[in-house]
Design goal:
Blueprint (H helix, E strand, L loop, with lengths): L1 E7 L4 E7 L4 E5 L5 H10 L3 E6 L5 H4 L2 H8 L2 E5 L9 H4 L1 H4 L12 E3 L3 E5 L2 E7 L8 E5 L4 E5 L2 E2 L2 E2 L9 H12 L7 E4 L5 E2 H7 L5
Parallel strand pairs: 3-4, 4-5, 5-6, 10-13
Antiparallel strand pairs: 1-2, 2-3, 7-8, 8-9, 9-10, 11-12, 13-14
C-alpha cells in the first residue's frame, strides 16, 4: 500500500488517499475542493471504495457529498459525531463559514468502540482519540506502519480544544495512551501539516514532554 497527501481548501486540511496494489483506494477526510480531488483520482486511475472520517469539523468534510455522489461510495464516522454532518452549529460551518453552512447527508456507516475493521479489503485498527472533538478517531494500519491521526496529533503540536466538545486534558490522555503506545517508527499522518513519527513526537513535542 501507498498513500498520497492532498492539502485542500482555505484551511489546508490534509486529505489522504490510501491505495492498494489493485489501485483501489480509501479516502480520508475530503475537506474541500472536490474537483481537485476527483482530478487527482482520475489522473492516478484509482477506484475509490469508501470514505473514512477522522472527525466532522467543516474543514474535513466539505467535499464529502460530492465524493460520495461521484463514486457511489459510503462514509464512515464515529457515533459521537454522526449528527455533526447535518448540523452547521456542530461541524463549525455556522461559526467559520456562516454564508455557506454545511448540511450534509448522514454517514452510511456509524462506528462505535475500538475494534479491528475491514473495509472493502483494507484492514485497520479503529482507535478512539477524543479531545479535539468528542468523536475523533485515528486509523492505524499495521501493515503500512502508519496512523491517520486527524487533528489529534501534529508534528510538534496537538489539536485545538477550544471548539465545542473539545477537552485539552482528554486530548493529552488520548495521545499518550492511544497513539504514543504505537511502535516508535509508526508514521503519523496528521490532519494538517507534514507527517511525523511516534518516536519524534514522544521526544520532541513540547505539549507532550
Amino acid at each position: 500500500m501507498k498513500w498520497f497527501q492532498l492539502p485542500l481548501g482555505s484551511f489546508q486540511a490534509n486529505c489522504y488517499i490510501l491505495v492498494n496494489r489493485q489501485k483501489e483506494c480509501l479516502i480520508f477526510d475530503p475537506g474541500d475542493e472536490s474537483q481537485k480531488l476527483i482530478q487527482f483520482i482520475t489522473e492516478k486511475e484509482l477506484t475509490p471504495k469508501a470514505v473514512l472520517l477522522t472527525h466532522a469539523h467543516l474543514d474535513h468534510i466539505g467535499a464529502l457529498d460530492d465524493i460520495r455522489k461521484e463514486y457511489k461510495i459510503q462514509a464512515y464516522i464515529h457515533e459521537k459525531e454522526a449528527d455533526w454532518l447535518i448540523d452547521p452549529s456542530l461541524n463549525g460551518s455556522k461559526l467559520f463559514t456562516p454564508n455557506s453552512p454545511l448540511k450534509l447527508n448522514p454517514a452510511e456507516n456509524i462506528m462505535k468502540g475500538e475494534q479491528t475493521l475491514s473495509v472493502k479489503g483494507f484492514d485497520f485498527e479503529l482507535i478512539e482519540t477524543p479531545g479535539h472533538s468528542p468523536g475523533s478517531v485515528s486509523y492505524y494500519f499495521k501493515e503500512l506502519g502508519a496512523v491517520f491521526s486527524g487533528d489529534a496529533l501534529f508534528s510538534r503540536s496537538i489539536g485545538r480544544t477550544d471548539l465545542p466538545g473539545g477537552n485539552h486534558k482528554q486530548l493529552i490522555q488520548s495521545i499518550k495512551t492511544k497513539l504514543l503506545t504505537l511502535p516508535n517508527n509508526t508514521i503519523v499522518l496528521s490532519g494538517h501539516g507534514p507527517s511525523t513519527t511516534i518516536r519524534e513526537e514522544s521526544r520532541e513535542n513540547p505539549f507532550l514532554v
